[in-house]
């Protein structure tokens, strides 16, 4: 894009594109980070480190089979959660109800991430040769890193309270308390799994944010030099 073309762009259009990029950046970072929780490459090793096979009294291969089925139902659907052992469903009715609620939350978040991706791509096609657009991405990424680092420390340090607050917000019906002695959901995903996974999500999110901050800041500087 020429300097003349860039200068001719209406200021309102440039501001709108920069705003869309800034709004989309933290959503996309959160989406990329939370994808870790639905990735068997992370979940299965984390379960092994948490000793899930021993807690559930199941072979590792059976834990992997059940977990992959639950992840598929929670992210792709249909949200039946009827994976079974010897014809008997792994989850009881209350657990399946909770997982259907999880599917609803995941699906809503997937829609938000898709809209953010569309906003980022659309504004980027329009303004990615504009230093202002990259500055907006840079500032949003740095803010996301700061908020993510602070939230991560608080979430891990006060995990029980944070975990309860999270569920009260997203699952207000209250069907998220299960007996780990008899119900499989808490056996398959014990507290130690969640504390490690929460820490990993925040570390990944902050790392992505910082990388994006540095990269977009560099590109903005290059464009300013080129157009200056």
Q: Can you put this structure into words, describing what you see?
A:
There is one protein chain. The radius of gyration is 22 Å and the shape is elongated. With 228 residues, it is mainly α. Strands 1-2 form a two-stranded antiparallel ribbon. It has one domain (3-227). Mean pLDDT is 91; it is low at 1-9. It starts with a helix and ends with a helix. It is built from 10 helices and 2 strands, in the order αααααββααααα.
Query: Terminal Cα separation, in Å?
Result: 13 Å
Strand content: under 5%
Specify Rg, calculated over alpha carbons. 22 Å
Structural shape: elongated
The total of beta strands comes to: 2
The average pLDDT score comes to: 91
Structural class of the helices, strands and pairings?
A: mainly alpha
Low-confidence sequence ranges: 1-9
Helicity level: over 70%
The SSE order reads: HHHHHEEHHHHH
- Name the quaternary structure: single chain
Number of domains: 1
Biggest pleated-sheet summary: 2 strands, antiparallel
Keywords:
two-stranded antiparallel ribbon, mainly alpha, single chain, 2 strands, disordered N terminus, 228 residues, 10 helices
